[in-house]
Known about the structure:
Number of domains of chain A: 1
Oligomer: homodimer
Largest sheet of chain A: 2 strands, antiparallel
Number of strands of chain A: 2
Order of helices and strands of chain A: HHHHEEHHHHHHHHHHH
CATH topology of chain A: Farnesyl Diphosphate Synthase
CATH class of chain A: Mainly Alpha
Structural class of chain A: mainly alpha
Radius of gyration of chain A: 18 Å
Largest interface: A-B, 48 and 48 residues
Strand content of chain A: under 5%
CATH architecture of chain A: Orthogonal Bundle
Amino acid sequence: MQRLDEFLTTVCRDVDQRLDELIPSASTRPRRLHEAIRWSLFAGGKRFRPALLIAVGETLGATRDRLLTSAAAIEMIHTYSLIHDDLPSMDDDDLRRGRATCHVQFDEATAILAGDVLQTLAFKAIADDVVLEPDVRIGLILTISSAAGTPVGMVSGQQLDIEAEGRDASVDEILAIHSQKTGAMITAAAVSGALIAGTKSSEVESIQSYAQGLGLLFQITDDLLDITQETAVLGKTAGKDVSSRKATFPSVLGIERSREMAAELRSESGEALRRIDRDTELLNALLEYVVARSR
Amino acid sequence: MQRLDEFLTTVCRDVDQRLDELIPSASTRPRRLHEAIRWSLFAGGKRFRPALLIAVGETLGATRDRLLTSAAAIEMIHTYSLIHDDLPSMDDDDLRRGRATCHVQFDEATAILAGDVLQTLAFKAIADDVVLEPDVRIGLILTISSAAGTPVGMVSGQQLDIEAEGRDASVDEILAIHSQKTGAMITAAAVSGALIAGTKSSEVESIQSYAQGLGLLFQITDDLLDITQETAVLGKTAGKDVSSRKATFPSVLGIERSREMAAELRSESGEALRRIDRDTELLNALLEYVVARSR
């Protein structure tokens, strides 16, 4: 879809520009810290979460100017989680987005600090976003900190994921892990877009349902890609999930049942979109984009 | 001073109670994560930063009810920084506040996640503190995130500290390290108390000067204690700074000159307090309490 391609291109450009404004330059002391942040942040990520936040916000009538800082902040939190997940004591990964992970390129201490401070800078950016009313900023910080935290957030999901490694996980477990680890922040991105647009609560609920399906779908396609694609295409170590006996949808459900579940989630998310009385073409295209990744 | 002792006792009790309310119980899943957070958070810390925030706030007319959540949030950020600083790739410390450090008692991945999520929960707590007006909450999040972040914040200070290890540091360097690593958050605690009290800006400046002196003084006394006290008294490994060739005030300035600098800072902080047209007895007592630690 041409409109989606154009949209994603402008999102990457605008979000990267905002990130560049929000992060100290690589020549600011301590240089190594800021170089490490920028190494991981500007590694050619797809900016999926910012794109979702902006797509929801613009669909519901917000201007991009009001959306960009929050979109950048969510990407900062996502990148902090990637840097820490890749550490030797966690997933111990050397490759991410096609380049050396932060602790490999720099060192472990710097990587831990770069992740730490990306989280700090994310909340600072939202608090400092003067184009938004103070109570909107508070709503965003609450939504994002709940989704990034514990219980039922990104960090609790990562802890559950680590604890499930190396043994057989149940369907309930894998759903709990991924709705927390990946799903919560994807949903928060969508809800943030709605909050900035000042959407009424019934519409926020539909957006939430759409995003919850989308988040799980995103994870299932990620898991399927890990099995079916090669390292060079993925930009991260392929087959890593299987070799480290990670709890993934294909490992628990099998490939066929995972594909069926993806189809169900696609249909549920599409249904949620039809309850929104707006032009949801862009949100639909984003859904199809996620579906298409797994083929 | 009796009043200070009583004050510190009630602060510890009230802050611990608020922390207990803000952190998921140890039986909440994932249990190991919440146990690890509580292990480090309820390890008998002195609650110096919360005490400073509350002392400033109460001196300037705020009720304790308005101060407690922010005081607890600042302690959460302090504890996150301790957990991460103690990690093998950072200071590699086994003992803290008289007990095993988080990664020793649990494991490295859990310790990283416990620190990560303490930061998240701190910002969430402030955003969710309904007794404060939204613009006060925004002011607090900005103040604290600036002090905890980079450049010129806690994380940049820690990075500078790591980079200075094992070589001779200059006086300027040691001042930069510690005004960022320790001083910034101590100053933020004091300024937060003033923000909650709705203090006028000239008074906020005096509070800031008082706290900047106090923060450096606190670090100098910490450095002196590391040399002069034993592990059992400190509750952390004594002589660690010297053995790991840390940049400390005594190592750069010598013990005598460090004591002189402490005396100068005490006098400057006391001077700043005299510019405040309130009963500053409690803040003065807090200053004397920090001075007395080094004897």
